[in-house]
Task: structure prediction
Amino acid sequence: MSEKIYIGVDLGGTAIKVGICNDEGQLLHTYEGPTEADKGADTVVNNIEQYVRQIVEESSFEWEQVAGIGAGVAGFTDVREGIIILAPNVGLRDLPIREILEARLGKPVKIDNDANVAALGEAWGGAGKGIDHCVCATLGTGVGAGIILNGKIYQGFAGFAGELGHMSVVPDLEAIQCGCGENGCLETVSSATGIIRMANDAVARGERTTLSQVEKIMAKDVFDAAKEGDEVAIRIVNRAAFYLGKALAAVAVVLNPEVFIIGGGVSKAGDILFNEVRSVFQKLTPEVSARGVSIVPAMLGNDAGMVGAAGLFTRS
Amino acid sequence: MSEKIYIGVDLGGTAIKVGICNDEGQLLHTYEGPTEADKGADTVVNNIEQYVRQIVEESSFEWEQVAGIGAGVAGFTDVREGIIILAPNVGLRDLPIREILEARLGKPVKIDNDANVAALGEAWGGAGKGIDHCVCATLGTGVGAGIILNGKIYQGFAGFAGELGHMSVVPDLEAIQCGCGENGCLETVSSATGIIRMANDAVARGERTTLSQVEKIMAKDVFDAAKEGDEVAIRIVNRAAFYLGKALAAVAVVLNPEVFIIGGGVSKAGDILFNEVRSVFQKLTPEVSARGVSIVPAMLGNDAGMVGAAGLFTRS
Result:
């Protein structure tokens, strides 16, 4: 038999993305189809099966070459038992997906949550390639993170490692309440949601900013305004960057990872964000813990989930 | 051959402590002799060799049963190469101690720094027995920590994991400079040094406290005064506890360890410290990250170094 291949499934609320990877984390072929979450669990599972068979058929590979199928799920998963506990956006609950897919496809199946597989994807085939220890944070609606130690996803004792968004970093006097119930979580300032909130607040306060002309402010509007020199927007981006830098400094002294990988929509702000994060990080981290440590943008974008899901076989 | 035994060496500036452990982390026999650091590296190495031979001779075990010799060193170590890079209190620098001891003793040798081996000792045979993931912090002159993941010491990319004492936790307005050069490190408030400094400051400010009658304030005086109801002392202990709780909350969201083990002189304060640390931790940690997580005192005291050094063989 020739080269082994690994199939990664990114199971989201709208689309199921399927990719074929070789054993070095290279994405060789992709396929995408609708999740059809509204039609129920049976349809979703049927779709996964069909797309996986489809991608191999379309490719130059043989079914026999498939060494395993990994899936990243937007929701809570029981990694050990291979069960989707709750994936609200996909309409799934208490689904023993590993058992079902293994029976239908005749191949070993592994699952994990989307933040962890995205981190593994970047660590295996993206910005962390060749790195043993890295922390991959995703700044989107919330702030999530995956911790990769010794090249593998680190789960923690109850599976809740990497909840970086809920590190309390904002001092009490400035803190607002987070969705988790605590005050001052990183997520309240360094997520897209946090940035939009700060912008709306500034406009509501009547501050002088070009953002007041935007009908429905998105995070990208704030970055664009900051790049144009809008002082209010710059202050908001710096605040998001400051607390992210502070949180990464706290992680650095404890874990001493080699690379922090920052992905998600907010990371698209680019240098205006990264330069400030790096500067705050250097300022707050003792030299010995910061030496040789870099903070870099994610490389794989939306492909990270497929690559990482495939990586569940070679890297865990 | 009968049961294997493991020898743990705790190499400190004043004394070399040697212990024999079985493969379950039980300390069966101990021996202690002077380091004689002032007489130079040769004498120190000779002493280690002699004490190791001595303890086996004194015990009921045979030399053949010794499966390995581990050493915990108060200083910087190159774990991979088995070299003591710098141990100022022991007067050692750039010493390839593994090679030397393996040649002299004819047994495999491993080394690590004292914070890591103490953490491993607690994880293997102490307060973390049976636990996969724990963080062991030592509150002494400074604040150090060892991170045990999957039952093994986690070193980080450059060997600087566990520098918990240098997490920046004190807000700018109250922060003082730490020995590392940064401001507001945990070590400035939650170490014995920090507690003594806060007590001296309070006395110098003329605050009403029984501590003003103590000639040279030690951390224990502050705990004793707090237990007697001295309000200034209670405030100081609460402040040390608050920032420790805050730092542990930051670690909890990232690593989700099962147990935090707190050792060192400051931990002897007992309930007055632990109750406050636990209360702050619960307040600052999202429920999902705090669930099932405990904060407990270290159990092995000064024996942790010997047990953990022996554990370098079975647990790494």
